[in-house]
Design brief:
- Belongs to the bacterial solute-binding protein 8 family.
- It is found in: Cell envelope.
- Keywords: Signal, Transport.
- One of its GO terms (biological process) is iron coordination entity transport.
- One of its GO terms (cellular component) is outer membrane-bounded periplasmic space.
- The chain is an alpha/beta fold.
- It has two domains: 144 residues, Rossmann fold (3-Layer(aba) Sandwich); 149 residues, Nitrogenase molybdenum iron protein domain (Rossmann fold, 3-Layer(aba) Sandwich).
- The protein is built from eleven helices and 14 strands.
- The strands form four sheets. The protein has a five-stranded parallel sheet, covered by helices on one side.
- Strand 1 and strand 2 form a beta hairpin.
- Helix 5 runs antiparallel to helix 6 and helix 6 packs parallel to helix 11.
- The longest helix has 23 residues.
């Protein structure tokens, strides 16, 4: 449940118009000529909507969060229970329809919703998208873009805003995020956290074996850590191979011995599953002998901050950092 749909990085094309069908003017700019909205998604595909999309569904949780943050109530979301377990930044409408899994939405359910548009990420590809597009406009967003995560997040938000006629709300989201980031950076600079080294991670347990997922500097949260003036400990760990979309890597408990002794280890978990660091590794001598574990510099961040979410989730992470800055 914690994983976004992993796919190859796609570059989000600039939307052709905020409102209205676009035509190329003599000076190379775009101009609006009607009531329809024409935009281009991450596939480079041009999509035309009859007007601002009102009845919208989303397969990926970050897209669902974008919609709610923009003031658009999605009529359908994939894996509603999972969303509500992992993402507390926004509340879905009580009557939202569960459209199936994020990787395999129900075509019958989608057909019953009379959708103006379906928003998916590039993890949902191939025949599923082609089948859905026969009756519903599909807008494909990149899941992420390692090293450019914040810009990509807001490019995604802007595209969803253009499709739904909520550009003003998107602008406000960016302004609020920038203000929160600056406020948190100042709080960090004025605290004991200033200049410290942080290792951000989550983990999962399988048959007693623990896999740790480092949030490297090219991940969305890793990017924010860098913006706050904190050092990302994973940057100097050899052998990590972060993926091109999300900037995540994998290691094991022995890999944690490569972290510096003075690191602050921050991690995510959830009460719906086993906390590997508190439970599975509690008697593991490699884990318990790590200097930052012995020194009590291990912090479980608040549950239900969606690590791959939109601006609202990132605001929650910034609030958590401010709390740690004290």
């Amino acid at each position: 449940m914690r994983l976004p749909l992993v796919a190859a990085t796609a570059i989000l094309a600039t939307a052709l118009a905020a409102c209205g069908t676009t035509e190329e003017a003599s000076d190379g700019s775009s101009e609006s000529t009607g009531a329809t909205i024409t935009l281009t998604d991450s596939r480079g595909k041009e999509i035309t909507l009859d007007g601002p999309a009102k009845r919208v569904a989303a397969t990926e949780w970050n897209a669902a969060e974008y919609l709610v943050s923009l003031g658009v109530e999605p009529v359908g979301v994939a894996d509603v229970k999972g969303f509500e377990t992992w993402d507390s930044a926004v509340e879905l409408p009580e009557d939202v329809t569960d459209i199936g899994t994020r990787g395999e939405p129900s075509l019958d359910t989608l057909a019953s919703l009379d959708l103006d548009a379906l928003i998916v990420t590039d993890g949902l590809t191939g025949d599923a998208v082609k089948q859905i597009e026969k009756t519903i406009p599909v807008i494909v967003l990149p899941g992420g873009k390692a090293g450019e995560q914040i810009d990509q997040m807001f490019a995604n938000v802007d595209l969803v805003a253009k499709a739904t006629g909520t550009e003003d709300e998107a602008k406000k989201l960016r302004e609020d995020f920038d203000d929160k980031l600056a406020e948190t950076k100042e709080a960090v600079a004025d605290s004991d956290l200033a200049g410290t080294t942080v290792a951000l991670a989550d983990a999962y347990e399988n048959g007693g074996s623990v896999t740790v997922r480092p949030y490297t500097p090219t991940s969305q949260l890793g990017t924010i850590v860098g913006e706050l003036g904190l050092k990302n400990a994973w940057a100097d760990v050899q052998g990590l191979e972060p993926d091109a979309a999300y900037g995540l890597a994998q290691t094991d408990v022995e890999g944690l011995t490569k972290l510096p002794d003075d690191v602050r280890f921050w991690y995510f978990s959830n009460d719906t599953e086993t906390d590997p660091f508190r439970v599975t590794l509690k008697d593991n001598t490699v884990w318990t002998s790590l200097p930052f574990v012995e020194g009590g510099d291990v912090t479980r961040l608040p549950d239900r901050i969606w690590m791959f979410g939109g601006p609202a989730s990132m605001d929650q992470f910034l609030d958590a950092v401010q709390d740690l800055a004290g």
